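User: I'll paste a sequence; please echo it back and then give the predicted structure.

Assistant: Echoing your sequence first, then the prediction.
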Amino acid sequence: MLPTGEMVLFSKQKMFKLKEDIRAYTDESMSQELLLIQARQILDFSAAYDVIDAPSGRRVGTLRRKGFRSIIRDEWEVLDSNERFVGTMLEDSMLYALLRRFILGSFLPQNYDILFGERRVADIRQRL
């Protein structure tokens, strides 16, 4: 979501996939695929996911998990197509992260902010 609350992409993730493969669409009808997000490896503590423009098949960026810094609260680096750092993706709050991991599990939806510098450029919200 944009800071204005407008939905930009819609995704419905398949459960129990060994190697993650996330598809993002223009809307909830899932008729037009825009992005494909694929894990590079099956298991990786500092996982990297390629972000691919679905229509052209071109890699447009990478999301890389910040290993130990993501144990309690998820933190990711947002990289451009040449794998240069451009921003950060952070789980919403330390309190909610702790509740998700140790008490409420998947009953508390995840929320991430995407930051370029100090500026929040997008919000990713999970709906149950």
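Strands lie at 10-11, 21-25, 33-39, 48-53, 58-65, 75-80, 85-91, 111-116, 119-125. The first helix runs from residue 94 to 104.
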